[in-house]
């Protein structure tokens, strides 16, 4: 029930945040050309200052730079995982909805079974057996995140199947496959796209939890989760900044993407104006 | 109602069977080798003959389905195999840790329900008001904040800066007995962090429920009869506003387990969630498999519970569906 003014404010603030994050992540590494891994023990654990806005870590590395690189890796893993999960989910959901009957029941039982295992636990299980690395992490995020997309796409397909334009296509002589690819798929794409965008922060969160537990990315590809994990010993010695900033950088894109996706959802379903939902 | 409970419990059986089979299938497909894991560094120097003997002793040379069936039948008699990392039977490890996890999760859930209901009623009473906007924004931020990060910041502030509460573990390092007041002191921070990580969801549902209920006829009727504002809020609006939340309480078990995995690890709490992470880092398959199945069973139980609660709270809901 947001009035137009807060609506526009939300669009602008979220859009600006996402824009700044994307610019930083894309432009800083090639432009700055500093080594974020360069160790300088004479500057270790400096609190935030003008020179080092986020301070330095226990090996004297600039935390702002490390956070930008970490965010870049987290975003990349999140994007790829969300993309894989969306493609799988859309395929399963569309197949279940369009084919119906026995296929539908089997696929949906599968979705139910998958959702009975807590996501992070399933992810931990997969990563533990396939050893940590970028691809196992992406696979473990994807394997736990396609379920909701499959459900959304299936219900969308089911409601579309009874629409007149599908009847028209069928009576015009279009086959099953043609109806699915030319008529059903384009109609569900906006919903699937929305689900994919909303999944990115989720996937980032999942990856950072795995990395924090020491089951995620290797430490030379430090994501935000790795940074928090590395900061644990400094934190116990009383230095808060190596822990605080990576976490804040995880919250910021989540809120901004949720804000943008909320605006997008309101455009898709104008009758059901949503409040900001995560 | 007993019939419905029975039927739901029966539908859980194939799901559990499927999950156990999937657990074995994933292990089969992975590069993980139980023989190497069992032998450890000794496996590097052992002869091929000894390794083959070990493979036969562990029973891992047999096909996937045979091993799964054997695990399943012995699991039903309470034998879950031996944990490689703890060097003890899995059932024993789970048995002594389960209680601590339940204590932590139950306390955290209570914190989330009490705080969430209180804040939800206050915010739902005047939606769009200053209090509502402040608490709602905080709730969305909290929802986006990772639980392990919150836990670390809590340790820094309460244990290191203020020195008011212990930073982790179950008892003080100097003591070797477990006393109730020590456990209580060590429980505060992890329960608070786990509770806070579950809070946004409770809060948002109560707020929505109470806010919507305030516009409905029963509340208007209660106001017209001249009942006190407090009676209207707690007796009418909250009661019908809590209903949608009740149905979802049981379905929050997965999130609670996810949170516990992170919070127990941060606070070195000796529960089963922390054991899961240990099992995963050292690829302790028997322990990891048992804990995965246990968590799935907990999720299914939660789903059943929320169905039952909904039926009890709303007489219009039949149990035949």
Report what the structure shows.
The complex is a heterodimer of chains A (278) and B (321). Chain A is 74% helix and 0% strand. Chain A has 278 residues and is mainly α. Chain A has a domain at 75-209 and 255-267: Orthogonal Bundle (MetI-like fold), CATH 1.10.3720.10. Chain A is elongated, with a radius of gyration of 22 Å. By secondary structure, chain B is an all-alpha fold. In chain B, 76% of the residues lie in helices and 1% in strands. Chain B is built from 15 helices and two strands. A two-stranded antiparallel sheet of chain B has the order 1-2. In chain B, helix 6 (90-125) packs antiparallel against helix 7 (130-144) and helix 7 packs across helix 9 (180-214). The longest helix of chain B is centred in the middle third of the chain and has 36 residues, at 90-125. Chain B is globular. Chain B starts with a helix and ends in an 8-residue tail after the last helix. The model of chain B has no long low-confidence stretch (mean pLDDT 84).
């Amino acid at each position: 029930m947001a009035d137009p003014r807060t609506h526009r404010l939300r669009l602008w603030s979220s859009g600006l945040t996402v824009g700044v994050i994307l610019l930083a992540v894309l432009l800083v590494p090639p432009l700055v050309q500093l080594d974020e891994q360069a160790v300088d023990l004479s500057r270790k654990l400096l609190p935030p200052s003008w020179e080092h806005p986020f301070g330095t870590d226990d090996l004297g590395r600039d935390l702002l730079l490390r956070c930008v690189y970490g965010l870049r890796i987290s975003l990349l893993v999140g994007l790829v995982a969300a993309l894989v999960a969306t493609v799988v989910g859309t395929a399963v959901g569309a197949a279940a909805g369009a084919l119906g009957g026995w296929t539908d029941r089997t696929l949906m039982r599968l979705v139910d079974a998958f959702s009975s295992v807590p996501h992070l636990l399933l992810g931990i299980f997969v990563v533990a057996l396939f050893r940590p690395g970028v691809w196992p992490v992406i696979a473990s995020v994807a394997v736990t995140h396609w379920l909701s997309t499959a459900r959304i796409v299936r219900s969308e397909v089911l409601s579309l199947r009874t629409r007149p334009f599908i009847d028209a296509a069928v009576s015009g002589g279009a086959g099953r496959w043609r109806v699915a690819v030319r008529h059903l798929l384009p109609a569900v794409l906006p919903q699937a796209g929305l689900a994919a965008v909303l999944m990115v922060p989720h996937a980032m969160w999942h990856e950072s939890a795995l990395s924090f537990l020491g089951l995620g990315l290797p430490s030379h590809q430090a994501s935000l989760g790795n940074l928090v994990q590395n900061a644990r010993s400094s934190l116990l010695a009383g230095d808060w900044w190596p822990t605080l900033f990576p976490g804040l950088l995880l919250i910021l894109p989540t809120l901004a993407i949720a804000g943008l996706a909320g605006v997008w959802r309101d455009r898709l379903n104008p009758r059901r104006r949503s409040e900001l939902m995560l | 109602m007993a019939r419905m409970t029975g039927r739901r419990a029966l539908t859980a059986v194939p799901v559990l069977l499927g999950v156990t089979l999937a657990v074995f299938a994933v292990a089969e497909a992975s590069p993980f080798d139980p023989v190497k894991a069992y032998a450890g560094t000794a496996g590097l120097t052992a002869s091929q003959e000894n390794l083959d003997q070990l493979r036969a002793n562990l029973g891992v040379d047999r096909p996937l389905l045979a091993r799964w069936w054997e695990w399943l039948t012995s699991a039903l008699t309470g034998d879950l195999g031996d944990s490689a990392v703890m060097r003890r039977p899995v059932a024993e490890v789970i048995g002594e840790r389960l209680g601590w996890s339940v204590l932590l999760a139950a306390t955290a859930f209570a914190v989330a329900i009490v705080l969430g209901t209180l804040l939800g009623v206050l915010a739902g009473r005047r939606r769009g008001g200053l209090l509502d906007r402040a608490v709602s924004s905080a709730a969305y931020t909290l929802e986006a904040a990772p639980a392990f990060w919150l836990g670390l910041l809590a340790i820094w502030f309460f244990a290191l800066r203020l020195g008011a509460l212990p930073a982790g573990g179950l008892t003080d390092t100097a003591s070797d007995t477990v006393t109730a007041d020590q456990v209580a002191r060590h429980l505060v921070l992890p329960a608070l962090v786990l509770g806070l990580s579950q809070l946004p969801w409770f809060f948002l549902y109560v707020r929505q429920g109470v806010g919507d209920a305030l516009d409905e006829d029963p509340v208007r009727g209660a106001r017209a009869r001249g009942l006190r504002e407090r009676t209207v809020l707690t007796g009418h609006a909250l009661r019908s506003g809590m209903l949608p939340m009740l149905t979802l309480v049981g379905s929050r078990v997965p999130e609670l387990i996810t949170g516990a995995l992170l919070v127990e690890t941060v606070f070195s709490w000796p529960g089963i969630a922390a054991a899961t992470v240990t099992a995963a880092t050292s690829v302790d398959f028997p322990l990891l498999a048992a804990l995965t199945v246990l968590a799935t069973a907990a999720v299914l139980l939660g789903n059943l519970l929320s169905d039952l609660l909904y039926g009890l709270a709303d007489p219009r809901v039949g149990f035949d569906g």
